[in-house]
Amino acid sequence: MNEFILSLAPGWALTHASVLLVALPLIAGAIAAALPWGRAAWGVVVAVMAASLFFSAILTAQVLTGGAFSYTLGGWAPPVGIEYRIDGLNVGMLLLVSAIGFLVSLYAPEAVEDEIDKGKHPLFYAAFLICFAGLLGVAITGDAFNLFVFLEISSISTYALVAMGAGRDRRALTAAYNYLILGTIGATFFVIGVGFLYMATGTLNLVDLAARMAELGDNRAIQVGFAFIVIGLGLKLAMYPLHVWLPNAYAFAPTMVTAFLAATATKVAFYALARFLFIVFDQGFAFEELALVWLIAPLGAVGMIAASIQAIFQTDVRRLLAYSSVAQVGYMLLGLGIGTAAGVSAGFLHLFNHAAMKGALFLALGAASVCYGVTQVKDLRGLGRTMPWTAAAIAIGCASLMGVPGTAGFVSKWALFNAALDNGWYWAIAAIAAASILAFFYVGRMIQMIYLQPAPERGGEPAPALRAPWLVMIPMWILAAANIVFGWYADLPVTLANAASAAIWGGAP
Q: Closest Cα partner for 389 from 323, 469, 269?
């Protein structure tokens, strides 16, 4: 497959895919904002997302066949100049963000028409493109300060996207403001940490930074920089208990924004944390080992359980899934905290699978919202009769979320279980089991409403059966089907997760 993709790519794409991946959506964002019609802006978005997916596929094939490589900008060789570094750790993130962006863009017209004022459609699509470019930039850059810049590009546009949900619910404005405040605090902590590392080493290139810190050894400036970076990125990825911005942002943002953020934004921040923990900082530093064992892993386990308990008591269905997302971030962090090749691979595998779970769930709930105004768990009553295809997609996503055998969620939870077992972390195994059982309760409420409750009546008659538009159904069912396909044939996510682990521990990409 990799050779086939490379054979299709023209020479200019093979050479410049790295920079085009980020530059194209940034330029297209300005074009979309200038267009007078929302549909024209949507056409630009779909074209850019398709091109970005193609570029990401090229980069993935290049890394999996030839290993890591760099793209230098401006003709200045690193570490003096800025480079884009493409390796096994980030190529899966580029592919994930591009794939989710493309699917969500197909879904967009119906949801945007329903939730966003018509005059704001071009600006909405422009902000979406800029957010998309920022996330790709975070994943691909090889420079610590540019990572901060791209982090802020994605964050600032995200605040605007969340606030545009005010047309449906005015609480989106408060959610966006809270997200802005906490996101700014996280970004400030991160850039202060980078400043300490620069003070100690005199470089911002991530590869050069790692080499110079290894020569310096453990010192106070590096320790302080490490602490600031972990807290800053912890806020961005909604690490428990730094997650308080996430539930309202997911609950009140426009549907396609929630689906996109749930599948990508926290995952990109997780990737950035993994790169700093295992590649930038020397793994021999005592403070890093202590942080993994006594901070990252315990907070991951606590988040898995505490956020799952909070999800049980939610009445808003999107807040329920938002707390579930915090719990799933806990699974990923537990994988990092285990601190082995198997643990890191399991954490990234759950990252990819969780994107498919939450993408399918939020898109399906968006379809139900457009047709029936579903916002609360109780609004799901009888959805299995009134929207059977949408209900089936929700059921598949819920099964994967619980870790039912035969779904993608089971594959990654099983990998995490084995990594913890190999490390002798029986408490972590107990936490995985407890969180999975708790997921059964909050997911069970949704399934019970969908299939075991009668449909609400409209004018004395049962609500009519409806089908979501095709542009809503197609991306929703691609993601729902991925939860089944990757439950039986997990080659793609396992390959990408193993490539990420190998980039850290040596060997392949």
A: 469
pLDDT tens across 109-160, in order? 888 887 888 888 999 999 999 999 999 999 999 999 999 999 999 999 999 9
Domain containing 329 equals: 302-509
Residue carrying structure tokens 């039912």: 404
- Residue 457 burial (10 A CB sphere; 0-12, 13-18, 19+): exposed
Cα separation, 358 vs 335, in Å, equals 19
Helices (H), 403-490: 408-422, 426-452, 470-488
Q: What total of structural domains would you count in the chain? A: 1
Q: Which of the 8 DSSP states describes residue 469? A: -
| Residue labelled with tokens 């400043």 | 195
The number of beta carbons lying within 10 Å of the beta carbon of residue 237 is 23
Rounded to an integer, what distance in angstroms lies between the CA atom of residue 254 and that of residue 262?
Answer: 12
Q: In a 10 Å sphere around its CB, with 0-12 CB exposed, 13-18 middle and 19+ buried, how is residue 202 labelled? A: exposed
Measured in degrees and rounded to the nearest 5, phi and psi for residue 369 equal -70, -40
Phi, psi of 141 (to 5 degrees): -70, 150
Select from 175, 499, 5 the least CA-distant residue to 507.
499
User: Is 80 exceeded by the pLDDT of residue 451?
Assistant: yes
pLDDT at 230: 95
CA separation for the pair 10, 444 (Å, rounded):
49
Q: Give 165's DSSP letter.
A: G
Q: How far apart are CA 110 and CA 45, in angstroms?
A: 15
Q: Which of 281, 187, 198 is nearest to 236 (CA)?
A: 187
Residue 218 DSSP one-character state: S
Residues in the chain: 509
**Rounded to whole angstroms, how far apart are CA atoms 243 and 181?**
13
Cα 403 from chain centroid? 19
Is the distance from CB of 295 to CB of 287 less than 8 angstroms? no
DSSP-derived letter for residue 277 is: I
More confident of the two residues 505 and 303: 303
Torsion, Cα of 38, 39, 42, 47 (10° steps) = -140
Residue 122 lies in a domain: no
Distance of CA 263 to the CA centre of its chain: 4
Confidence of residue 458 (pLDDT cuts 50, 70, 90): low
What pLDDT digit, counting tens, does each position of 40-91 carry? 999 999 999 999 999 999 999 999 998 889 998 887 888 888 899 999 999 9
pLDDT attached to residue 115 = 83
52 domain residue, yes or no: no
Say if 349 falls within a structural domain.
yes
Give the CA dihedral 281, 296, 432, 330, nearest 10 degrees: -100
pLDDT at 493: 92
Could you give the 3-state DSSP secondary structure of residue 29?
Answer: helix
Dmax (CA) of the chain = 77
Query: What is the CB-side half-sphere exposure of residue 465 using CA atoms within 13 A?
Result: 7
Residue 465 has a pLDDT of 59
Give a yes or no: residue 120 inside a domain: no
